[in-house]
Every structure is written in structure tokens, then in C-alpha cells.
Amino acid sequence: MSAPRLLALDARWERLSASRQAHCVRVADLALDLAAAHGEDPHFLYLAGLYHDLARELQPDDLRTEARRQGWPVDRYEWEAPILLHGPVAGGWARDAGLPLPFAAAIWWHTTAHPELDRAGRILFIADGVEPGRGAYPGREDLHALAFSDLTGAYRGVLASTLAYLQQRGLTPHPRLLAAHEAAMRTADGRGVQ
Asked: What domains appear along the chain, each with residue ranges and CATH number?
């Protein structure tokens, strides 16, 4: 597949550091492969992966300003840790550039997940969490492999890994992340739906 792009986002892409661009390409490549494995649209998931971190290098005040400009309901957690807004901001830009809503929503939720995250959103969340450039962390390679055969299990694993990472650093997880983890665990015991 040739590398698709949304031309309206080229200027924002060019402002990213080389290391951020490389991360985004790795996420896009993995999202493409996972989309093919799970019957999702590979073209749009590739684009979601490519553009998921477009706002990652913005300054905190710029993230807050852009989120409010887009009408994102900035909550207390996002206000205090504006890095959480880079997903919603990039998702808004991607939507405005023509990325269909389900894939723009995958970008919105790649930082905090969401209790009702669909399969496309789970693929992007997993791809961002386990792409090989993340380096070695306990279970990364296993989660990467699992994602091709058991998307729900890999999603649960990446959520748990993310929560452990935040706990180790003394950071408070966003309530949406906790709710996403709880919802994912309900699917594990048969009370929820996949």
C-alpha cells in the first residue's frame, strides 16, 4: 500500500520532530496490519495512526486553547494535565481534514481510551501502546503478538500496562481510563459485550 495522506494535514505533520514522525509511522504501520487481521478498514486506520500525535508537541496553553476552539469539553484532569488533550485536538484536525468520524474518534481516545471504544479505537490504542519503538517494557512483545489473535485481550493488557505505568510514576489516571479498564474487564467475565 502506498502511504496515504490527508493533504490538509501536511503542514502540521512537517512541524513534528523526526522522532515523533517515526513513532507515528510505526503506529500507522501496526494499525494497518491489525486492521487487516481484524477486518477493519486498513486505509483509514493507517491515517489515524499517522496523525494520532499531530498535537503531541504543542505547548500546554496551545493545547487548551485549541481544544476549546474545537468545542472539546475540557475537564479538570485535562486542564491540569493538558498533554491529555493532544488526542482530542489531533482528532479534531483529522476530522476536519476529512477522516471519517469513527477513525477521528479513535484519535480522540488514544490517550485516555473510552469505556465504549469500538474496534477501530482499540486497534489504534493498542498500536500506540505496543509499537516496537516503545522499547522494552514488561509484556510489550507478548501484547504485540496477542493483538493479532485476541484484540480484546491485548486491549485489556495495554490498559493494565498503562495504569501500571501511571501508578509507578505517581500520576493520577484520567477517570475515563479507569472506566475503560473496568468496561474491558467486564467483557472478560462475560457480563459485557465484545
From this structure: 7-188 (1.10.3210.10)
